[in-house]
Amino acid sequence: MILVQQDGATASFRIRLQPKASRDTIVGEVDGILRLWVTAPPVEGRANEACLRLLAKALDLPISRLRIGIGEHARVKTIRVTDASADLLRTTLSNLLERLHY
Fold this sequence. Notes:
Layout: E1 4-7, E2 10-18, E3 25-30, E4 33-37, H1 46-59, E5 66-70, E6 76-82, H2 86-100
């Protein structure tokens, strides 16, 4: 299960990003951290942009509500979602991971 924390009106969770992958996809979860692959290289923020686009699409949220809170230049990042409930985000991520296994 992805660990999601609530801080006021913002929910956050951690991801591990693999740039320069063969495709843009959500791979799964390890130790409470969501694993993502993106084809973009880690140059000039392109992998981070691809990461946020992938998450926005998967979570059915506007990209403007997502941002990288910690780890902009690292593979492990904290994603912050504004105007979000941790419980709702946890449920959405759980459902997303369940669909990956089928």
